[in-house]
Amino acid sequence: MLDPHAQIVRRASDMRGYYADEQALEQLITAHDDPIHYETFESPVPEEYGQVKFCISRLYPGKVGDEYFMTKGHYHAVVETGEAYLGLRGQGLMLMKTAEGACQWEAFAPGKLIYVPPYWAHRSVNTGDEPLISLCLYPGDAGHSYGDIKSEGFPRRVFQRNGQVVVS
Ligand SMILES: [Fe+2]
Predict the structure, then answer these.
(1) Short-list 1, 74, 76, 12, CA closest to 39
(2) What pLDDT, on a 0 to 100 scale, did the predictor assign at position 1?
(3) Count of domains in the chain?
């Protein structure tokens, strides 16, 4: 059996430095008692070559200012490892970028697979009004690295403007 799974919780206060509107994030933290932003449930599979790790992640809906809730995003510590995501519930975007500045994105939808190639950092964004829930699978030795994300962010952000999802 693979239970129990490790739960990783990110609260709004863990997201300081990631959103464009820092004041709006502080208001969210204060007004809603530092709500859970997203959480992942990681398989207890050993983190070693040949294993396949998997996790379920739940990213709550909402906006910081007019920017949709998102995960921090990460590279893999072993950069030449990819990952597959399967949308289970909700709507959103997978933002992907390389250290060289390329940026692409793909829509999440229930039942739809998204492939993150090796070398690409990846961040989920919830553009819907319900939790964005996905399953991910990745090599056991991939690891996580925040690399330049805290300092550089992603080249694009995802906003709600005039009721529309805008990547800008
Ligand atoms: Fe990953």
Answers:
(1) 12
(2) 42
(3) 1
